[in-house]
Amino acid sequence: MTESTARLRLSEAHERSVTTALMLLEQDLFLVASLVAADQVGIVVSTRTRLDARQREHMQRLIEEIRAEIAALAATFSLPHHVRDGRRIISGHLSERWADLGDTRPAKLGRYGRLDPALAAALDPPITRLTELVAAMCKEVEQ
Amino acid sequence: VKTPPPYADTSAASPPSPHLTEPQARAVTSTLRRLEETLFLAERLIGEDQRGMLLSICGEFHTLEQQHLQSLVAEARAVIASVAHDFSLPHEERNARRILDGHLVQIWSSLEDTRPRRLNGYGPVDAAAAAHLDPLIDKLIDLVNAMRDEVLR
Asked: Does the ipTM exceed 0.95?
């Protein structure tokens, strides 16, 4: 970086606008990088890219190039770095899941039609256990 | 001492329970899918802080916390597997390319809004700053479009 570019400053509003766009870009790059690196294979939902080795390598190169450009922009315009609390992010998502699970209890499922009592008896314990596990995770990340 | 979870065994030893009605199954399945997505996200953030140039997401979990959380995640997955098996819940395959393309389109739009001529809406942009900013944004847009080309191939 030359001395002249080091002195370049954007106004506060311009800086905020550029920084926000680049932060959103970086946030999405975290997700892109994770999906490019490995498929998410779950029990009731999976997310697969089906990229071949050449495509994965190309995507990884593009991600690195984008990060280098963001670094150049940050250095040129002295853009501020932000740190987000990963614990709060996890805790926020878990709280939503806790509420979802509450709505999936047999007593609440009755609104979608009468629930067979045998079925309710089979569904209630695992949903209760999942609710407990989510609450335990919340407690751990909030410590 | 923790007792082993009663839901860990998903073998077909026990007969499947009667079926939920379609709306009930949909409600349970969508809750469990959202939970699985959250478990993937939590696993990513618990395992490693994400450090970028302008944005970092840090939980700074120590090893014991990571181990405890990972065991909770594993147990939650075992319970989900048990419910999915017992109630014959369907598995959904999502196309990550479409998801990635959706994100990349939003990024493209957001970058277009940071071009110096668009930033003028917040007051005039210094000419020297604009001259440096424009080619860098161009380059970023080209790279994002190259990613879109790759994921849509």
From this structure: no
